[in-house]
Structures are given as C-alpha cells and as structure tokens.
Amino acid sequence: MTRETAIFAGGCFWCTEAVFQSLSGVEGVESGYIGGTVENPTYKQVCSGDTGHAEAIRITFDPAVISYDDLLDVHFATHDPTTLNRQGNDIGTQYRSALFPLDAAQAGAARAGITRAAADWPAPIVTTIEGTSQWYPAEDYHQAYWDGEGQRNPYCMAVIPPKLAKLRKGFSDRLRAE
What we know:
Blueprint: E1 4-10, H1 13-20, E2 26-34, H2 43-47, E3 54-61, H3 68-77, E4 86-87, E5 90-91, E6 97-99, H4 104-118, E7 128-129, E8 136-137, H5 154-171
Parallel strand pairs: 6-7
Antiparallel strand pairs: 1-3, 1-6, 2-3, 2-8, 4-5
C-alpha cells in the first residue's frame, strides 16, 4: 500500500491539524516547524517570529483514498489564503500560508491548487510555494492537540469549530466514517 506525504502551513498548527485528522485516507497528521534557519527550534523560538519557520502540518495519506489535489482543496477552503503572514489573531511569518511540495509533481499540483482556489476568494491568494527544507516535529504536547487539550482551550474553541463546519459543508464525502 502506497503512502504519500504533504506539508502545509496555514496558521496555527493546532487548527489545521484538527481539520485534516477528520479526512478519510489521512493516516496521520503531525504538527511541526519548517522553512526556517534554526536547527531543532522550540515552540517558544518559532512563536517569536525570529526563526523563519512556519507552524505547519505533515500529513501522511493514502492516495488511493484521497489525493494531494483533494488535500490542497481542503487546505484552501479551511483557512484564509489571502492574508499575508496572518490567520485571524495569529500574526507573523510563522503563521503564513505556504505549501512545501516534496517533489516536482506536488509543486505542479500546488500551482494548480492555487489557481483553483483563486476562483473562490475575492482577494489575491498570497500562499507561497516554498522549497523543501528540514522538518522538525513540534513538542509532544502539540500533537493531536484538538483531541486533548484543545477542546478546553478557549482559542481553539473559537477557531476550530468553524473550520470543521466548513469541512463538513464542503467536503462531507471526504470525511472519515464516525
């Protein structure tokens, strides 16, 4: 059975992780840091905005069940790809909208995904396509955050349920069976 990996950044990784964990064919979602200059960054360092890293998610998926294109479409529908270095109240380059394609096929699909998304947004898409760089898993307490601490965190309760509602509305056929 073939597995593929996708890496997306779209604001707080707690919020993007919760969306992708709900999709059929997604076998794992790991929160982490990518695109920066500091080796083995900590959450505190990345939050400072000084490392160049983005909070991102690394998705392991079965392409026979869900495609990279489908993941891109979900990504663009569940965050705002038109705000530079910002998602809601999260401001800074660490919250940028970015795609980190792992090969030429993903890079082409990323460009096509941006073009598709542009038709659905009233402002220009500012999502960047960045080169592959070192992935650093976030600290353990960030992993599967929504399933644990997140549902008691007021920030998460304000941000994640609307994202999940968008997911259910636009991608009900892609949701994991409950």
